[in-house]
Amino acid sequence: MQLFLDTADLTAIKKYAAWGIVDGITTNPSLVAKEGVDFETRVKEICRVISGPVSAEVLSLEAEKMIVEGKKYAKWAKNVYVKLPMGVEGLKACKALSDAGIPINMTLIFTPAQALLAAKAGAKLVSPFVGRLDDIGHDGMGVIYDIVEIYRTYGFTAKVLAASIRHPQHILEAMKAGADIATLPPELLEKMALHPLTTQGIEKFAADWKKSQQS
């Protein structure tokens, strides 16, 4: 499974990229706005740090304008994926841009039916929002299972990107479900890497070594 970071924080991206485990980035204008920087500038900066897919989300809601934005974004770097919102207009834009060779991440997916349409329209990535479904009492991870099964049954090549990840258990379930990618807030990487028994083990090894050197 690939791990993407869902952030526009360049400092965090550089920090975790140094771990050697960041495969891509998902971001959007809201995340960039929090950083107080220009959207184009920040996307280009991220693309210089991360060689994998960097999703940049359009602002427009009409297909024609999405297409214009998407073509503009695609010129910023070779690894830019244009992020489009699910819906009729998004599907139209997805078809046009994917036909032009521009990779698409279709976002705001909440049902297997939406994921099916996104794949048929040519999306390279589809992003079901697990946490937001859980928030309203639905089985977010169940949607991941369903989409993975449907794609395998019909031979779709779009990758399933589990989004709106809230905690390490979501990541575990996404792995078990067969999701290709999980995108997560940077702080979750710390939680994945740490465990009390690991910490205790390291401390015990260090104490034993120190004791042996004193004897």
Q: Brief description of this entry?
A:
With 215 residues, the chain is α/β, with parallel strands linked by helices.
Strand content: 15-25%
String of helices and strands: EHEHHEHEHEHEHHEHEHH
The outline comes out as: globular
Tell me about the largest β-sheet: 8 strands, parallel, barrel
The number of helical runs is: 11
In CATH, what is the class?
Answer: Alpha Beta
* CATH level-four homologous superfamily name: Aldolase class I
- Integer tally of domains: 1
Q: Report the CATH topology name.
A: TIM Barrel
| Helix fraction bin | 40-55%
Report how far the terminal alpha carbons are from each other: 47 Å
- Structural class from helices and strands? alpha/beta
Give the neighbour order of strands across the main sheet.
Answer: 1-2-3-4-5-6-7-8
CATH architecture descriptor name:
Alpha-Beta Barrel
- Unreliable parts: none
Determine the mean pLDDT.
94
**Count of DSSP strands:** 8
Which radius of gyration do the C-alpha atoms yield? 19 Å
